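agent: user wants the structure for Protein transport protein SEC23 from Cinnamomum micranthum f. kanehirae. delegating to structure tool.
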Amino acid sequence: MIQPSLISYSFQSASELVLLELAAIAADRMLLLDSYFTVLVFHGVTIAQWRNAGYQNQAEHEARFLLAKLNPSATYDSNVSQQGTDVIFTNDVSFQVFIDHLQRLVVQ
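agent: tool returned. relaying tokens verbatim.
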């Protein structure tokens, strides 16, 4: 049986698995629900206010480090248009292209 997991992220403690209970919701907490086919992110009231204020876009915040670590999915020669997201162009291949190529090599 596939059991969904609910992971709590808070400034007061390390990330932890929590029960699928209403008590898991808090103002200063983010919840990530992984139900295998769907991933949902819930922002507490305080976290949502910070997101709406655009704190993650300010230069002194560290969202830029995440963008530097993400594997790019759009190259200069691809015709990608994603609504509502920033597209980071690169000359490197995407992780999906790498996996597809690796699968072809394994099957041969």
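agent: one observation worth passing along. The chain has a mean pLDDT of 77.
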